[in-house]
Amino acid sequence: MASVRSGQQPGAVSAPSLRRQAPGSRAGAAGQRRAGRQTSSGVAVYIVAGILISAVFVVPLLWEMFRSLQPESTVSNPPSGASFSHLTFANYRTLLSGQDDIIRNVTNSLIVAVLTAALTAVVSTMAGYGFGLFRFRGSGLVFGLVLLAFMIPFQAVLTPLFLELHFLHLLNSLIGLALFYTTFNLPVGVYVMRNSFLQVPGEIVDAARVDGASVTRTLLSVLRPLVLPGIATSALYAFLFSWTEFLGALSFMTNDSLFTLPVALSNVETGTYGAINYGLLLAGAVIAMIPCIVVYVALQRYYVRGLVSGALKG
Amino acid sequence: MGLAFTSPALLLVGAFALFPLGFGVYISLTNWPLVGPYHFIGLSNYQSLIHNSEFLQSIVFTLKYTAIVTIPIFVVGYALAVFVRSNRRGTTVFRTLIFLPYIVGLVAESYMALVELQPSSGSVNFVLSKLGIASATTAWTVRTGLATTAICILVIWFASGLTMMLLMAGMQSIPTDLYESARVDGASWWSAERRITLPLLRRSIALSLIISVVGSFLAFNQFFIITDGGPGTSTVPVVMSIYQTAFADTDVGLASAMSVVLVIVVGLITFVQFHYLQGDDE
């Protein structure tokens, strides 16, 4: 049992599953065999069931997008037949021009998410290169220490981290927040990148060396294109983590103008003038949701690649 | 050379994960206020935790919450994984759609849930009262039982997609000829599932359970946004208890002691589940 599994895990797992993810080529050997048995009524039943199941997960999100286009008075009052007419961008207009200055918060979120994605990609690629293609003393220990961060829930180091960031003048700092996010994305990133470099054929590295390319040049010009999918995976995980993170941003940012979008929405929730404006809250939540959907749908094969290759196994 | 390339990663992890962990243990032995002088008080913080009813209540609440959501997330996730694991027409699209709630994140969805759970204006009461299940004025967010129920349903909806993806990845790695020979031997679908899929899937099952149990144990966002711990302190999970102790009560020493307990508990959960499910064949 164990041998079947271990023989199967690293290479063989990702290769066929990835091929299946690629558009237009779902005819893997297994797929063909299973699909071949399908009668046309079976296919129809499967698709109808699939649509119904998917609806359970997607319709609530679509419904909230629709609700955010209703006037504030409709969102905050008992529903009626009129709920379906009078769609308007009023909530978005108020939110983006109002006291709450949401544009600044969206910008903060974007800065931190892009910075986190970029830092994670660069640091993970370097570390993956070091762990994957170099033998050095203590490499096992260093790798273990980096993965150890995976075992430490960031929620549990929040208080000491708060004091540490305070001493380092990194509280109320978008850079400080990005460094914190990067750290807790490194275990996944380093794991993915090490595997990417391990899969590069040794002859390519040797050939670059024979041609006299320096170690850094080998990385930047010879290996970079080969490990690009891994880089995309690490960056994507980091971006989504950063964009949706709440507790850290809530703890380390005390200045309203530096809040990220999810934290700023808790201000909207509390209501600056007492009464909560549910229309604004919904519009804000939809703004928070859109980039995730766009980025994920565009890059999902890299995300799935991470899941399949065991990035979360740490 | 290798060390040079890996040092930035080591530096970050050392500075922002390992150091705070050790620093937290150190602080937990002091009466550190957020600002001002402090001194060592030994294990007093830990001793006072034993009698700290709010902390104990938050642990009990978090355990209950974890117990409630874990099995539904797993069962729903497993069923979904069976549904999307083959490569029929439409599967790729279904996978993407079912996974979307996880990608969007619990924070945005908690805000949406808060709006829709409002007694007189929310969609939840509107639909349920039309179906005759609940009154149009049910106050979801201000009653412990109702709020917990609503949050559990939200979280099951949010997290099943991740379990689906993890189990699906595991299922696809099982060689198809095992199923072929089982079919040749006349095994039914169910017995193939039980004899081949489940045993070979133990690693993925362990992984998905660890992620979901640890995730539930570290819950914060949905409670902070939807109930803010209320009514009273009845829906305060552990992480919120720590957050309040550190930033509202400014008792950083006590909060750090709570954090140390949390690290140990989460570590134990991970270890036990991994050991139990991965078992002897590793």
What does this structure look like?
The complex is a heterodimer of chains A (314) and B (282). Chain A has 314 residues and is mainly alpha-helical. Chain A folds into 2 domains: 1-37, no CATH class; 100-313, MetI-like (MetI-like fold). Chain A is built from 15 helices and no strands. Chain A has helices at residues 2-8, 10-21, 29-36, 40-68, 72-75, 90-97, 102-133, 139-148, 158-167, 174-198, 202-210, 215-244, 247-252, 261-270, 278-308. The two termini of chain B are 33 Å apart. Chain B has a domain at 63-249: MetI-like fold, CATH 1.10.3720.10. With 282 residues, chain B is mainly alpha-helical. In chain B, 73% of the residues lie in helices and 0% in strands. Chain B has helices at residues 2-27, 44-50, 53-84, 91-104, 106-116, 123-130, 144-172, 176-184, 189-200, 202-217, 221-226, 238-247, 252-278. The longest helix of chain B has 32 residues, at 53-84. At the A-B interface, helix 1, helix 2, helix 3, helix 4 and helix 7 of A face helix 1, helix 4, helix 5, helix 7 and helix 10 of B.
Name its key features.
heterodimer, A: 314 residues, mainly alpha, MetI-like fold, 2 domains, 15 helices, 74% helix, globular, B: 282 residues
Shape of chain B: globular
Reading off the top of the CATH hierarchy, the class of the largest domain in chain A is best stated as: Mainly Alpha
Uncertain runs of chain A are 1-36
| Helical residues, percent of chain B | over 70%
Highest CATH level, the class of the domain at 63-249 in chain B: Mainly Alpha
Quick recap:
The complex is a heterodimer of chains A (314) and B (282). In chain A, 74% of the residues lie in helices and 0% in strands.
Draw up the topology in text.
The complex is a heterodimer of chains A (314) and B (282).
Chain A: H1 2-8, H2 10-21, H3 29-36, H4 40-68, H5 72-75, H6 90-97, H7 102-133, H8 139-148, H9 158-167, H10 174-198, H11 202-210, H12 215-244, H13 247-252, H14 261-270, H15 278-308
Helix pairs in contact in A: 2-15, 4-15, 6-15, 7-10, 7-12, 10-12, 11-12, 12-15, 14-15
Chain B: H1 2-27, H2 44-50, H3 53-84, H4 91-104, H5 106-116, H6 123-130, H7 144-172, H8 176-184, H9 189-200, H10 202-217, H11 221-226, H12 238-247, H13 252-278
